[in-house]
User: What shape does this take?
Amino acid sequence: MPDAEFEAILARADEESVRRALADVGLDGDEAALDIRDLRSLADCIRLVRRTAVRTAVSMITTVVTLALNGGRATNVESFRVSGLSKVNFPASFHT
Assistant: This one.
């Protein structure tokens, strides 16, 4: 069997295998290319939602930690005032 004929047989077999595999997963017919584009678009949207969710969670955690630290600082300043140490010169940003 010549090499060219053998390669042609392999190419046909490959093509038939691909068509059968696509048919098995429901991606055959005229709209197969559109279906694959839709699946890629859906995967891109899922990645975007995941990335946005992670950014939002990090932002919320950072905000909570910052608020907690500022609340602790304000409480500390108030305890100085209550304990009679109000003669300490605090910067204007500490006074409420």
Observations:
- The chain has a mean pLDDT of 83.
- Residues 1-30 form one domain.
